[in-house]
Structure formats: structure tokens, C-alpha cells
Amino acid sequence: MKATQISRTGGPEVLEYLDLPDPTPGPDDVLLNVEAIGVNFIDTYIRRGAYPRPLPLIPGFEAAGTVTTVGQNVADISVGDRVAMAGLTMGSYAERMVIPAWQLVPVPDGVSSETAAAVLEQGMTAHYLCHSTYKLGPDDVALIHAGAGGVGRLLIQMAKRLGATVITTVSTDEKAAMAHSLGADHVVLYTKQDFQDEVMRITDGEGVNVVYDADGQTTFDKSLASLRPRGTMVLYGAASGAVHTVPVSLINAKSLFFTRPGLNHHVATRDELLWRANDVLGWVRSGEVSVHVHGTYPLKDAGRAQDDLENGRTMGKVLLVP
User: Fold this and answer.
1) Which CATH class is domain 2-120+267-321?
2) In degrees rounded to 5, what are phi and psi of residue 197?
3) Pairwise CA distance, residues 223 & 144, whole Å
4) Which residues contact 245 (CB under 8 A, 6 or more apart)?
5) Residues 55 and 8: beta-carbon distance below 8 Å
6) Residue 115 phi/psi, 5° resolution?
7) Which residues contact residue 271 at a Cβ distance below 8 angstroms, ignoring those fewer than 6 apart?
8) Is pTM, for the whole model, over 0.90?
9) What is the pLDDT of residue 74?
10) Confidence at residue 199, expressed as pLDDT on a 0 to 100 scale
11) Contacts for 11 with CB less than 8 Å, ≥ 6 apart
12) Residue 247 pLDDT greater than 90, yes or no
């Protein structure tokens, strides 16, 4: 099979498009014929070595396709089923992938494999952020960074479903228009405005209840400062670099809450995985949540896809196709 592999860490150039042996499923596994692959920031962190893994490896945590083989212990998945996976098993940058059967979710009729791969990981991330990490309601004001990005645009829509007031940050006028179209109440163009000043102006100096921040290093301090007393700082990514230390004095100053969650701990059981996945795919099918694919790249161009994602040249989701 064709696959993209890394044998050393570094920039996009370390992604190699190779011929590799087909994987073999075990008794509790499924062999998936991959039709679409989601590209996520965690793929770039692993490529750079920020999350060390044994090498060589095939990156990627998100895919959708059709089941071609099932292990002897697998009872509730059949050959020919359309399924998707995200967040737990790595190796999706390939034509075929072996996945533990419990990690697969059914793709409903009316949702394509491309759409499922475009929404599942980022959709379930947005889901846990606003339903579990900090459960939003009508009395909440949320600051969502990168409102035109993959998670940001989904999180805006889910936050509005829950009745929250949304302030979001974007880098361009085009992205601002997109964020407004998704329901954001206030859009801050951070390349021209100081987002902390704007948050305080919008909230009459009170600050927000929660900040959802995947940027990390460049936004962290002002994100903390944008919170009201007893507010919650949710750092769920590090697109601009890792936040290495969090002084207790900053948390104590306003009795803040701070958390650094990850998707894998929020889909660690079959029941929780299906809850989040079925919600997300169901909202997409009904039209309650829209998905925007920025671009679809051939698998051999995985390096270019990751480079565009890392350098802010995308709005919405980036996909690979074998």
C-alpha cells in the first residue's frame, strides 16, 4: 500500500511517500480501506518531535472509509460498513489502516466519507470543550481563539446552540466574515486590535467566563487576563508554541481555573465516543452544524498540507485522499 511515513523528526520535508506492506488486523480489529484523511495540528506536533514517538511511524489520527476485513471477535461491524475514527489510533496517512473495532463509529447515510473525516476529530474536540470541560449556557460569555480554524468554527456553532455569547479572534477580514456567518456575536481582528482590550470593552470590564485557546504561547497571558474572577482557562493546543510554565500567582490573582485537556481522555470509552460522534455527525447530517473543507490534497502532498495548516493559510479543514 501507499503511505506517508516519517523516520526522523523535523519540518514538512520529513514526510515520505512510500510503498509499505499492508497491515494485518488482529481478532479484535478491523481493516479499513481509507477514503479520506483528516489533517490536524497534533500531526504536526508529532512530526516535529514535540510529542516523542518511536520511529518510523505513519502519522494521522483521523480517517473515514469502508471496512474490508473484520477480526474473528468483532460482532457489531461488517465488511462494507462505512465508518470513521478519530483521536485514538495513529496511522491514518495510508491507503489502509488497522483499527480496534471499538474505536470506529458508523457514518450515517447522507454524510460522505470526506465530510466525516473533515469533522470527527475537530467536532468531538469542540463537543467536549463546550459540553464537558466547561459546559456553556445562556449566561456565559466565551472567548474562542482562531474562529475560522477547524475547531474554532465548529466550537462557535456549538456554543451558539447552547445559547452562549461568543467573542472570537481571527487574522483577516475574510476570516472575520466567516466567523460572523457562523454566529459569532463579536469578531476581533487580532492583527489590528488588541484582543484583551476588545474583550474588556465588549464585557464592560468584567471579562469572559471561559477562554478556549489552541494558540498557546502568543495568546496565553492575555487570555488569562481576559477572564473574569473564577473564570476558566482552557488551553487545548499549542499552534504558536508550548506554554512552559503557568505561575500560580496568575491563577490566584482572580481565583481562576486552568486545564489542558485532550481528546483521547474524552473518548476513552465506547459510550462516550458514540455520544460525541453521534451528536457531531447527526448535527452535520441535519444541517445544524456546517463543515468547511479548505482543501483536499493527494496523500503524497501531506507535507504541503501540513505546511499550509501550520502557517495559517487555511480556513476550516484540510483533507488528504489516498
Assistant:
1) alpha beta
2) -60, -40
3) 10
4) none
5) yes
6) -65, -40
7) none
8) yes
9) 97
10) 98
11) 47, 48, 307
12) no
